[in-house]
Amino acid sequence: MSVMRFLGATSREAMRQVRDALGDDALILSNRRMDDGVEVVAVAEEAQSSLVEQAEDVAVPAQADAPSDAAPSAPGQDRLYAEMQAMRELLMSHIAETPRPRSARPGVRGVLRQRLITAGFSARLVREMLETLPDELVDVDADDPRLLAWSRRQLETRLEVLDDEATMLEGGGVFALVGPTGVGKTTTTAKFAARYVMRFGGDDVALVTTDDYRIGAHEQLRIYARLLGVDVHAVHHEDDLEGLLTRLEGKRMVIVDTVGMSQRDQRVTGQIARLGGASRPVRRLLLLNAASHGDTLEEVVETYQRASRDAGAPLYGCLLTKVDEAPRLGAALDVVMRHRLCLYYVSHGQRVPEDIRLAEAPALLDDALAVGQGSPFTFDDGVLTDMLRPTTSGQGLQALSRDLLAQRDQLARVMETLQRGVPGVVWLDAAWRRRESPRAIQQAWLEEHLAPPPMIKAWNDAEATGLFWPGGKPRGMDWAVPMLPQDANGDVLPLAWPLHRWPPSDTQRLTLARRHLGSHWHVFARVPDADVRQQLREADSPWLARTRVQQRVWYAGERLAIGELVDLAEPCGQHTCRLRGRARRVTLSRLPVTLAEADTATLQLWIATSHDPESGRQRGVYHWLGHGGDALEIDMRAFVYRQLEQDDLSRLMRAAWQQLGASAPLDCELRVYLAAQLASLALRMDLSEDGWAVDARPVVKRLAGERKRRSPDTLLQGLMHLLTAHAALSQAS
């Protein structure tokens, strides 16, 4: 039969059966949940036309050809006619409304295709890759790390880079840098020469310029040569280059800066041919502007490669310039891969010799694939399908416009909700808008907003009653975690204050927090020293500090590791907490201890053990030392539970720090400020059940991806998309 029924335990299993039996282009007629699983009814692509014809044949009433006294049709025939008529209408509506049938959720191929095209890679290269997708990856989740690893391997095998720079430089030769105007040939010539000078000195290097067109071109290269301590020569006539290269045979490395010419200039062929008549072979290195459109780069490579082959030898390799100006590297890398050019260096700024590095495939592909948001200039299957649907009187464009306006209004409402519900979001939004500004503007904003007077006022306005003390630099971060305020419930507030803007010692910081910020609670990433503990005790300030299982304390006259005291602790409560986006049942125990044998101040050792509420399996054990008084016992229990739920804060900051590093160049302080703000807001949004969080969470989660479950990591990604979209829409309006 053409129409087939499939039954699977889950929708994914049923759809896999459909693809195996009917192919990727099968049309889904129905999809419903049953007691024993999910039922899917589908028809193969090649059978759709014949099925429509059968439906049309059955649709003609039998009475049209029957005599007037013929018997009425049987009930079974009427039911068959009704079912076929309904099927016909369903098929015709599907075929008319969409260029090709597609399921509600894109498959792995569709997701991977969109991801690569969004990164800038061409549809041709993507199609070639997808044809070799292994069977074991066809049904995995789009976020499966194996899929990303496979994608990177496929791209890395196609990207040829220089393996041994030392051997290449030591071998020397004549290198001519060629390419269009404005691609950075003169600056790159100096950078290339500097790579040699730093290894072998400048005695065996000579620079040559053939640029007679640009005013000051010779002088610019002479300045670079003087700084590097190398010889420089200018060629004013076409016939002089061959003789000059003959005279420079004693130089191990000769680098020729050529005239920049558009790929559409008819003189390109002549210029390249001029480089081929020397007694020493000239190796042509093509410079490609990484910020150019893919079609432009394609045309440049084709023109210069053809001219180079006509001159006797293909291009020797290429260099990518202006990488710091390119929003996406996919197009440039795609062109290099498909034309099988060897990539030597990557240039990313104007400084000589700093802003050039050896091309490394893994790092370049990581940068290319790290693009998070789409582009209006890349193909999007969903938008294109909607625009191709047949409409009347331009209703399709009107509907699309209305949808975009609705999306803009929805994002604006979510931002207003966050700004009203959480102190510090206004500052986060303002800081986010400075990401792509020059460093001077970023630093000016930081100096204005993070000085003591505005920060003290902001913390007081937020009614912050607690303080989170960082524990230094998390692994993978260059800066220490900022100080963060906490409200009366122990929740962190996104009002980060970088640590270097505080007084240098912990005792001075504690004095500032008590006198000017009204901090009553204190949470430490590690146990504070004796002076700070004494200050806290004198001020009667409750505090809590994370500690390791190897930490040694005194109990019953013995100095023992905390891990040896777990069984001696007294159970004091049980609570359901939310840890890393999942519900956990937490059992809390406590034990009085001291840090020194002679201490008279007793501390409280808190031990929290989390279990999976469904399976009962233990998921983790957490330890704190803290305030030892009994007056705040009930509050301390609630406080411990809340700090347990926020134990992931440092990891979220590290994740935000890493993601921000893949975006526009950021001042380091602005980067750590944004990372702390984003992490604390994502964590607060995940834990809170207040109205602002309930209203904002669904939209923020959807921005991170419809298939992702709610978690602080998902909300962190969604917040980045929200801030980017809100800033862009605000600027456009």
Percent of residues in β-strands: 15-25%
| Structure classification | alpha/beta
Low-confidence stretches: 58-74, 94-105, 381-402
Q: Write down the overall geometry.
A: globular
Distance N to C terminus: 56 Å
Quaternary class:
single chain
| Count of individual helical segments | 26
The residue-averaged pLDDT reads 80
Helix content: 40-55%
CA-atom Rg in angstroms: 34 Å
Major sheet size, sense and barrel closure: 9 strands, mixed
The total count of strands amounts to: 22
Give an account of the 3D structure.
The chain is globular, with a radius of gyration of 34 Å. The model is unreliable at 58-74, 94-105 and 381-402 (pLDDT under 50). With 733 residues, it is of the alpha/beta class. The longest helix has 27 residues, at 395-421. Strands 4, 5, 6, 7, 8, 9, 10, 11 and 12 form a nine-stranded mixed sheet that branches. Strands 14-13-15-16-22-21-20-19 form an eight-stranded mixed sheet, with helices on one face. Strands 1-3-2 form a three-stranded antiparallel sheet, sandwiched between helices. It is built from 26 helices and 22 strands.
Short structural description:
With 733 residues, the chain is an alpha/beta fold. The chain contains 26 helices and 22 strands. The model is unreliable at 58-74, 94-105 and 381-402 (pLDDT under 50).
